[in-house]
Design a protein that fits this description.
heterodimer, A: alpha/beta, seven-stranded mixed beta sheet, six-stranded mixed beta barrel, 32 helices, 38 strands, B: mainly alpha, two-stranded antiparallel sheet, 1% strand
């Protein structure tokens, strides 16, 4: 030992161990170096190795210098290298076997861990908390503490985990079809950069989606500083150009608009589907809206995922008005709705604005009913100045957005219910104009190096730009993304990218809150993130994404290094940086002269909308989203063309008829028809995102592409179109049987006045058995007794619960043919029922999980006793006892039991094995399955509570559907806990059981709907047209 | 009388044809029946019916193999219609079997001697029908290799089947039914097997029949034992006629599905079973007596009686249909009302109205003596009845399930080619088994017919 207490170099350590140490050091050097192959000979030449050799074979060390026996030596050394770690000591040191060579700290095998991160869609961050089993992310939830989601989730977030494990993801970098390593690409790129420097980047173009990542924007900006002639374009097919242009028109600059629906007594949505997963901030709006739907101030309030209430305690019920061209979630739920073709919608917005004092023209309403309707709306808006909100949908023309801003200002909503902030995206521009310019440059041959990151313009760019034709004129084409898609196929370089669960990044949510995206798994296929790709353009090509993001935030943080580290760690832990939301600012509206509305075009108005499940096509290969029945239509695996009942009758159109749409510019596509109650007359709606050719096994060839119809001038509404019948038939697979309640009181609803007159309206006319009305003694549930209450006032029909359940419980995807046969496997389904006039019906969305009946009909009839009742009230399905007679399903009046008619589960694909939740059995063919109230979560919660010798707390155990619901509609808990929310909800008079007259005594009950109609507006059935 | 065909000299008593044509004696009866078995050349028509039947047995084999390989998803069943052709055919076949047992057991206990000439092949029909029926509960299971779990055997899982479930009762009912029918049929065969043993020339047939005859010596002691055994078995089999199809009807009646949950189901099903069973007896009897020249043994009296039983049970079935409509109208349940409306006007309305035509309207022709006494017309009516009873099971199983409580779960059942393959396969199996039976075993009970000879001889003597 040396004087300072440290061991002498090479002396105090046991000689045998010394060898081991040297060899291990040498090995580590090889293992931790850059990922290129280093020969054993190189290793043999290293200093450490030589020293090890000398010690191990002291006599032979001298022979090393002898060239003749060097070969013999190398042979011996080869063995030594291979056996590095084995010492020459007689006694072997103990080496306990551990599953990890380097086990991550805090990891306990069998206990999953959660990490906060975020997904980006259209530039906005969707905050998430991801559960990881042994280093594999398996389930995504909303981030409970994040102000931009309040713990709620959406279908895209829930399904994005499948995208990570998509077997059709690209796994290699390619240059013209040949696999190339990363370093080759970097080398090739350096050559290109040098060339571009000569012209200051005149031939360099970047094409990205909307970016809200400060780091990525920073990288691009600094790159553009060094190459000032290069250009950065952003392109999203379903973009917010109209929103931006509207803001420009109204304020003279780009602003981000967000809403505070907690304080809004009246909400008017102008074709704005604020509940859909694609709308920025939708979880917050759904929950805020739901919390204002309390019919009685004494009712249980809506809470967030952490069970914190939102609503003002004394707030009265809000009222939702909707004008829409295509039925959407808002129009179905609205207290009052008008179905208007796009031309009429704009006209009516103008009328409303004129009545509010803004000179916008518009004329007169079409008929007496609609005049009364508008009168009632305006009276309501005027009566709630400063407590109303007018929201224009993204697809509306800029003028409608500007009118909405002007109307909100006129009503004094600005700063209260409507808040303006700086834009969330890093570089707000007119994306269509930018793409147009890029396409022009491409066609002119000006583009020498085009770098496309995560876009698919060959598939989704406006058809009049001929992007693929332009692409052929580009010399160097580089594509970076997850899939080798339609665009990637035409590029020279394909660099496989990373999923957001595999990389470090950052993003801003809809309210501006900045958050870090942290990876949960190392890149599965060795991909590089966009940050790392851009680093290859810079002088620091080896910098990792982590370092890039971290160093950016270091520059943003005002403080010392010592203060930065805890701040950074807290941010990464929480998923967001506290207080980083963009502050609201005052935005005076310019005085605008609104041009008069152009006369209507002759013909049909065809609307192009993003698909509710597939969005713009990016989720095409996501089997969960393909199989998800779309809200309202319930169609799966295809994009239907929606036609209204009057038009269908007039033109003798039937379900499944294939029609050809021809726009005024002569572009044509064919699609299959779906009858849509509530679709305005003389309009058709077509959904984008289908008809892809290179999406993967689930996406390619499904549906038809509507993008060929789209032009830069007409992105959302194609006026003056025509249609003709082709006489062909194309089956559309629907996930629901019939969408009419057929005079059965399945969803019970009444108006607020009716409720006040008779709070127990939900229980009239329905003879349900009294609690004691049975021959059998009640089972004493002494411990826990689980129950669920679903608030139909809050449920917006977004389907997040369906995907959450599918992810949590390993539910298989069965494909279009099986869905058409009624064999979809979703344990919870959201049924849509239309009620009222087919031209303008109300839509009721009802989530139907297993009712866990206390008096279950299924338990009686199973011959082998595979379905039994647990001591906590659950109806348990025992998979390994089930022989598959399906009697239980026949006897279930709710039809919530799903049967594996064939082997629906994928046994073979290795990536999907990583995806599955290890806590839930995978069911084989011939076995019945159904909702279990997430019994795996219940068991885990109960065990955790038992270990601490206490009862399970309310909201400690949450079912997957409950946790995902953005509106907080599904409440689950212990009925024996008198303080639980679910127990309180079941005491409310609105609480009723579905089909309870059958005596099943369901544990899942529903809160009846209370509508809040404006007394000035008569019922739609009374109108004249 | 003018209605009775000349050429069939019948002794007429009480205005009805005799049970056995005159002119037979012990030897001629025995010969007539055993010659069919001992015939050197099988008639061509036998081959012409057997080969297609054997083909369909092959189809059945293929269909079942594919079913086990891929799963029940190859059929058209779905949620909500979890039961399709498999259960329809199961109930249909089991129902058909009941006629045989009624004829063999109940008519025996009621001392109706006219049963003697038809009881053996009717009982064989029962056996083969129950075999066909018994395949379906196994085939329609999602995991058929675990079918033995439905039997109560002591096991390491310490789990018994759920005795509250009608499917477990089915297991007992059908297995009991098959066992008793087999024993009953076999015991009844023993004296005739001995006859064949004694009169066979070929060494191998002598050996096989001899083994099967279990050493019958035709002694008084053997006869005494035979009579007791046979009566006992008849006593055991009699309640089965009522209980088996009652238990099968419980598959439906115990469930809460509207259209199933009705107390009328047990008697309605039993009547329907006898109805379809007698139709099948007639469909078998009429060609057989023509082809094999057995009009003297299976006389118009038999056809007339079978037709009358068919008519009366058909009326009970029609009453059942009427009652279903009545309690749907009279009752409070909107779901029941909808079921009746759906049957008459819904997607499967053609099936329902065909059912009414086949089961209610056409059998009324049996009131007419002319129809009952014209074999070809009787055969046609029986075919319609058989079809009608199959359609009834379709209406009960499929139409009730396709639209029950939740409209969001309403669906459609479209049978696939594999559904049809299995069904036609069982038809082929039944035909093939039956044809083998009439080729290899005496299709009419020789000793019971011999007992009738003395009766008719007495009558002739009286008349003379």
């Amino acid at each position: 030992m040396k004087a300072n207490g440290k061991p002498n170099d090479n002396e105090a350590i046991c000689p045998g161990k010394l060898n081991q140490r040297e060899l291990l050091e040498a090995r580590e050097k090889v293992a931790s170096g850059p990922e290129y192959w280093r020969s054993l000979e190189e290793l043999a030449g290293s200093e450490e190795f030589r020293r090890a050799v000398q010690r191990e074979f002291p006599k032979g060390a001298s022979e090393w210098l002898d060239p003749v026996s060097r070969r013999g030596f190398l042979q011996l050394m080869g063995a030594s290298l291979a056996l590095a770690g084995m010492t020459s000591c007689v006694r072997q040191p103990l080496e306990p076997i551990v599953p990890y060579v380097r086990q991550p700290e805090d990891l306990i095998l069998g206990v999953p861990m959660s990490y906060a991160t975020a997904m980006t869609l259209n530039g906005y961050a969707y905050p998430q908390l991801v559960t990881s089993h042994e280093g594999r992310p398996t389930k995504i939830e909303g981030n409970p503490q994040h102000p931009a989601c309040l713990g709620g989730s959406d279908v895209f977030s829930q399904a994005s985990i499948l995208e990570l494990y998509d077997p059709d993801r690209a796994q290699t970098n390619l240059y013209r079809g040949e696999i190339q390593p990363w370093m080759t690409f970097v080398g090739a790129l350096r050559g290109q950069i040098v060339t571009q420097r000569a012209t200051q980047g005149a031939g360099l173009r970047f094409l990205t989606p909307t970016i809200s990542s400060p780091t990525l924007a920073g990288q691009l900006r600094s790159l553009l500083q060094t190459l000032p002639q290069a250009k950065w374009c952003q392109w999203e097919p379903v973009n917010r150009d109209n929103v931006r242009a509207g803001a420009q028109m109204a304020f003279g600059q780009y602003v981000e608009t967000r809403y505070n629906l907690l304080d809004a007594d009246v909400v008017l949505c102008l074709d704005a589907d604020i509940f859909s997963a694609a709308y920025p901030g939708n979880p917050v709006y759904a929950r805020q809206y739901a919390s204002r739907r309390r019919a009685d101030p004494g009712f249980v309030p809506i809470t967030d995922v952490l069970n914190q209430p939102l609503s003002r305690t004394a707030a009265a019920m809000n009222r939702l008005y909707s004008l829409a061209s295509t039925p959407n979630l808002v129009s179905g739920k609205a207290d009052h709705h008008l179905a208007l073709a796009p031309y009429d919608l704009e006209r009516y917005v103008r009328i409303i604005a004129t009545r509010l004092g803004i000179a916008a023209g518009g004329g007169e309403p079409r008929n007496e009913y609609e005049a009364t309707w508008l009168d009632g709306l305006l009276k309501d808006l005027q009566a709630h100045r400063g407590a109303s909100a007018i929201i224009a949908g993204d697809a509306q023309p800029p003028l409608v957005h500007a009118l909405a801003h002007a109307m909100n200002a006129a009503l004094g909503n600005a700063g209260k219910t409507v808040l303006y902030t700086d834009p969330v995206e890093q570089n707000p521009v007119d994306q269509t104009a930018g793409l147009q310019e890029l396409a022009a440059d491409m066609h002119a041959g000006k583009v020498e190096l085009l770098v496309m990151i995560d876009v698919n313009p060959v598939y989704d760019a406006p058809a009049d730009l001929d992007f693929s034709g332009g692409l052929r004129q580009v010399t160097g084409k580089l594509y970076h993304g997850l899939y080798s898609n339609e665009t990637a196929q035409l590029c020279d370089w394909f660099m496989n990218g990373t999923h957001f669960l595999e990389h470090w990044s950052d993003a801003r949510a809809f309210d501006g809150t900045a958050g870090i995206v942290q990876p949960l798994i190392a890149p599965m296929y060795g991909g590089k993130s966009a940050h790392e790709l851009l680093n290859a353009f810079s002088n620091n090509p080896d910098q990792s994404g982590y370092d890039t993001v971290r160093s950016y935030w270091r520059t943003q943080f005002k403080g010392s290094d010592a203060e930065f580290e805890p701040w950074w760690r807290q941010g990464v832990h929480d998923g967001f940086f506290a207080n980083s939301a963009l502050p609201a600012k005052a935005m005076p509206v310019k005085s605008i002269t609104f041009p008069p509305q152009a006369p209507p075009a002759d013909g049909i108005e065809v609307m192009l909308r993003a698909d509710p499940s597939i969005y713009d096509g990016r989720f095409s290969n996501n089997g969960w989203l393909q199989e998800l029945p779309k809200p309202l239509t319930q169609v799966t695996w295809d994009n239907p063309v929606l036609v209204g009942p009057a038009m269908a009758r007039r033109l003798d159109l039937k379900y499944g008829d294939v029609i050809e749409i021809e726009t005024s510019a002569g572009r044509k596509v064919k699609g299959s028809l779906w009858m849509q109650p509530g679709q305005p007359d003389n309009t058709l709606t077509v959904f984008l995102g289908y008809g892809r050719t290179r999406a993967g096994r689930s996406g390619s060839g499904m549906g038809f592409s509507a993008y060929p119809l789209r032009t830069t001038a007409m992105p959302y509404v194609l006026s003056g179109s025509r249609m003709r019948k082709t006489g062909e038939f194309y089956e559309l697979a629907s996930g629901q049987g019939v969408q009419d309640m057929e005079n059965r009181r399945i969803v019970r609803a009444a108006t607020l006045d009716e409720f006040k007159a008779d709070p127990r309206f939900a229980h009239r006319e329905e003879p349900s058995p009294a609690p004691g009305e049975t021959l059998y003694p009640a089972f004493p549930y002494t411990e826990n007794s689980w129950g669920m209450s679903i608030d139909q006032n809050a449920c917006v029909g977004c389907n997040a619960c369906v995907i959450a359940c599918q992810a949590e419980n390993n539910i298989p995807v069965v494909g279009k043919q099986q869905v058409a046969r009624g064999r979809r496997m979703h344990w919870i389904r959201v049924d849509s029922y239309y009620k009222g006039d087919p031209a303008n019906p109300r839509v009721y969305s009802q989530p139907v999980p297993c009712m866990q009946c206390e008096n279950a009909p299924c338990e009686l009839v199973c011959p082998v006793g595979a379905t039994v009742h647990s001591t906590e009230g659950l109806n348990d399905q025992v998979y390994n006892r089930c022989v598959g007679t399906r009697y239980c399903s026949n006897n279930c009046p709710y039809k919530v039991r799903r049967f594996n008619f064939l082997l629906f589960q994928d046994w073979d694909t290795p990536q999907l094995k990583m995806l599955r939740n290890p806590e839930v059995t995978i069911r084989s063919r011939g076995v019945m399955e159904k909702c279990t109230y997430c019994v795996q979560r219940i068991t885990k919660g109960r065990i955790a509570a038992e270990k601490q010798d206490r009862a399970v707390r309310d909201y400690e155990v949450q079912t997957a559907c409950q946790q995902a619901c953005p509106a907080g509609a599904i409440v689950f808990g212990n009925l024996n806990d008198k303080t639980s929310r679910v127990a309180a909800l079941k005491q409310q008079p609105l609480d009723y059981g579905l089909l309870e007259d059958l005596g099943t005594r369901p544990r899942t009950t529903y809160q009846a709907i209370v509508m809040n109609p404006n007394p000035e507006i008569p019922e739609p059935t009374e109108r004249e047209s | 009388m003018a209605e009775i065909r000349t050429g069939e000299l019948m002794n007429v008593r009480h205005g009805r044809p005799a049970v056995l044509a005159p002119g037979f004696n012990f030897g001629s009866i025995t010969d007539k029946i055993s010659n069919i078995v001992f015939a050197e050349r099988t008639p061509l028509i036998w081959w012409l019916t057997f080969l297609p039947a054997a083909f369909f047995v092959g189809v059945l084999g293929v269909a079942v193999t594919y079913l086990f390989y891929r799963g029940v998803g190859i059929w058209g069943i779905t949620i909500p219609i979890g039961w399709g052709f498999a259960i329809i055919n199961f109930v249909w076949w089991v129902g058909i079997g009941h006629a045989g047992t009624l004829i063999s057991a109940i008519l025996l206990l009621l001392k109706q001697t006219w049963r003697n000439s038809i009881n053996r092949f009717a009982e064989a029909m029962t056996l083969f029908a129950v075999m066909c029926a018994g395949m379906f509960p196994l085939l329609h299971m999602g995991r058929p290799w675990l079918a033995y779990w439905m039997f109560p055997y002591p096991n390491t899982m310490t789990v018994w089947p759920n005795f509250r479930s009608p499917l477990v009762w089915d297991v007992f009912a059908v297995s009991t039914y098959f066992t008793i029918s087999l024993l009953f049929w076999y015991v009844g065969l023993i004296p005739d097997l001995a006859t064949l043993r004694d009169s066979s020339v070929n060494r191998w047939t002598k050996l096989i029949y001899g083994l099967l005859a279990l050493g019958w010596r035709n002694s008084a002691r053997h006869w005494k034992r035979y009579e007791s055994a046979y009566l006992l078995l008849a006593g055991l089999a009699t309640p089965l006629v009522l209980s088996v199809h009652t238990v099968v009807s419980f598959d439906f009646a115990v469930a809460l599905v509207p259209g199933w949950h009705a107390t009328i189901f047990p008697p309605y099903f039993v009547a329907g079973a006898v109805f379809s069973g007698f139709a099948m007896v007639l469909i078998l009897a009429i060609p057989i007596r023509k082809v094999y020249g057995l009009e003297g043994l299976i006389t118009m009296r038999h056809l007339d009686n079978c037709a009358k039983v068919m008519l009366s049970t058909g009326l009970i079935v029609a009453y059942g249909y009427l009652m279903e409509v009545f309690f749907s109208w009279y009752g409070v349940s909107q779901y029941e009302k909808y079921v009746t409306w759906n049957r008459a006007h819904g997607l499967y309305a053609p099936v329902y109205w065909s059912l009414i035509a086949c089961n209610v309207v056409i059998p009324q022709l049996l009131w007419l003596r002319k129809v009952r006494y014209t074999p070809i017309l009787l055969f046609t009516v029986s075919l319609f009845v058989l079809l009608g009873m199959w359609l009834e099971r379709v209406v009960i199983v499929v139409v009730s399930l396709q639209r029950d409580f939740m409209p969001s779960a309403w669906g459609v059942y479209i049978p696939t080619r594999w559904d049809w393959a299995v069904f036609l396969g069982t038809l082929g199996f039944f035909m093939a088994a039956f044809l083998l039976f009439i080729r290899l075993l005496p299709m009419i009970t020789m000793f019971e017919m011999r007992a009738l000879v003395s009766e008719t001889t007495e009558e002739v003597k009286l008349q003379a």
